[in-house]
Amino acid sequence: MKKIKFFALMVLILSVLSLAALKIEGNKVVFTFNYPQANTVHLAGTFNNWSTNANPMRREGDLWVTELELKPGTYQYKFVIDGGKVWKEDPDAPGYTDDGFGGKNGVFTLALKDDQLVIVAPATEIKEKVEINTEREENFYIEDNTYVVIRFYKPEARYVFVAGSFNNWSMNDTECYSSGDGWWEAVLELTPGVYQYKFVVDGKDWLFDPNAPAFVDDGFGGKNGIFEVWKEDGKLRVGAPKVQKEEEQTKVELPKENIIKSVQYEIDGKLSDVEKSTAMYSGTVIKQAYVARTSTAAYVSIVLDKPARDYVGQNVLFEVYTDAPKMTASNRKTSGGTILSKPVGFRFSLNMRTWQTRKRGTFFAAAGDDSWILQANVFKSAVDDVVEIEIPYDILGIKSGENFNIYIVCSVDGKDEVLPQEGIAIKTPTMLSGNVIAKFADKIGDDYGFGTYVYPKDPAFAPYKGLWDITEVTVLENDEAYVFSIKFAEMTNPWASPKGFSHQLVNIYLDTKAGGKTSTYKEGARVQFKEPWDYFIKVAGWPDDRIVFATADGKEIPEAIIYEADPADKVIHIIVFKKYLEVKTGIKAYILSLSQDGYGTDHIRPVSKDPTQWTLGGYPVDSKDFAPYVLDTIVPEGQKQEDILKSYVPGQSYATLIPIVVK
């Protein structure tokens, strides 16, 4: 058995050397990337200032290839797909580093060895706090004073690999072996050092080891197992890292570079070590200000010379000013008259004089003449030890991947301190990226329900076709979310919705596990479902009561989704965060297009026998109100929308929809 393990280990080591996607040929670094579905691929990195067009790659079969002459040094890189629609990390990079936007860049070091260029993975540094696992079943042992063996319990797994800093986090290089009773074994030949790791189950699920000697933050909201290998009295040992005792005594340090990071925060007026592990700015009245960002909002925490609650009742304002890519009006001055270095369109204000009686902030939009117009939008804020303010991208009209600037202002008795003077640039994470896991083309011109529905008569519905006509649905998957991109034949905005579209109302029902409901979440659509659904999603051009994420048992979780539209491309992107989904049986979906009506049942525009100014026409009176209000839907291959939507029984039952398979 030991010989078999050793032989398999050597085969895996050789396979790593032969299949590397980054190699040296002569004096050039050769980059290869397997992505056959791309139309174009460019190489971007620190060597070309992250240009999206400086280094095109050529197609060679299913691979994309290019070569670069580089000097010795450490470089980061990524692949740019189809002109920037998707950015992908190299799955076979020698190493990885946080890209600052919730993903990762490939990283490698180019070195000279015997006058020849060689590629090496960057050295592993343990900067995170090490958490010792005091409750664990022993699963590490040394074999033949040579191999480190790790046991992992996963009886339902079909196959398991171990990935870690010892194999450049490759998900398919180091296979585990079934040792019976649900246990899997990884056999590693390691030199003394500290290593991080995870297990990859069935080629898709990255799982931490609950029996690891210790844990560290993995940089993506989870944790890695960590262990140290050392020699003692000539014998190989393995266990928790020895560095843990020092690190337990130190607080989370500020990053060496002032980078705005994604951190988990809570708007409670308390400043945690995690909330401090991001960009920090120093001032006079404002001692420190910490700025972070997530997928949905920016975070600002303000530290003063005394607890912020001691300023309650005084003539003090804490404010954040922002711009936005598409702001309609802008000011240059704060409410106190200070001229800012850039025009701003929005103002988040906390007034300490009134905080005791009105514990909430106030949101303003610029009027364009240095005055401010009060808005009804609500944002989270808190005053206790510190001041904390959350800045939702949604109310600024900022989309994923866009840039904006903020200024932090403290005004005492009308005198402003602006921190920093030049403002702070924030780039929102690009959520509209990932692997395409499903794509559905739909018939053009079928936004007529089962064939008889016609448009209302008001000019707002011009061009009287295509507004509810789904032409294509693409589903992406990235580390954080599933993205449903729904393309329509037409998209107009006559009623000036803040999201850029007025007419479309999208309902999505997801079936991801056993159980659920076969009726709609609320009355209105007049359909039912062949297979039970578990999650309901609803979006329209107004993000107040027309955005919903709900479970089948009625629990609504607004933060589970974000969405944005691209009116030029006539696409609505709905981003569903994975952490709110329990996926056990794959993903099936019902995707419905309806007409948005602020006064309709569940915001659905009714259909009457004949079209009127505001209602659609063509409704069958003999259906006895059991015909659907659905105008377009995606149906499985081989099925017809008309037949499915006409499957209602007059006076008895609604039409029964059939799901499409997403994953």
TrEMBL record:
Q: Which keywords does the record carry?
A: Hydrolase, Signal
Segments forming domain AMP-activated protein kinase glycogen-binding:
29-99, 153-232
Q: Which residues form the Glucodextranase-like C-terminal domain?
A: 437-658
Gene Ontology molecular-function annotations: hydrolase activity
Q: Which residues form the signal peptide?
A: 1-20
Gene3D superfamilies per record: 2.60.40.1190, Immunoglobulins (2.60.40.10)
The answer to whether UniProt assigns keyword Signal to this entry is yes
Look up keyword Signal and say if it applies.
yes
- Entries under InterPro entries matching the protein: AMPK1_CBM (IPR032640), CRP1_MDG1_kinase (IPR050827), Glucodextran_C (IPR019248), Ig-like_fold (IPR013783), Ig_E-set (IPR014756)
Stated family = Belongs to the 5'-AMP-activated protein kinase beta subunit family.
Q: What is this protein called?
A: Glycoside hydrolase family 13
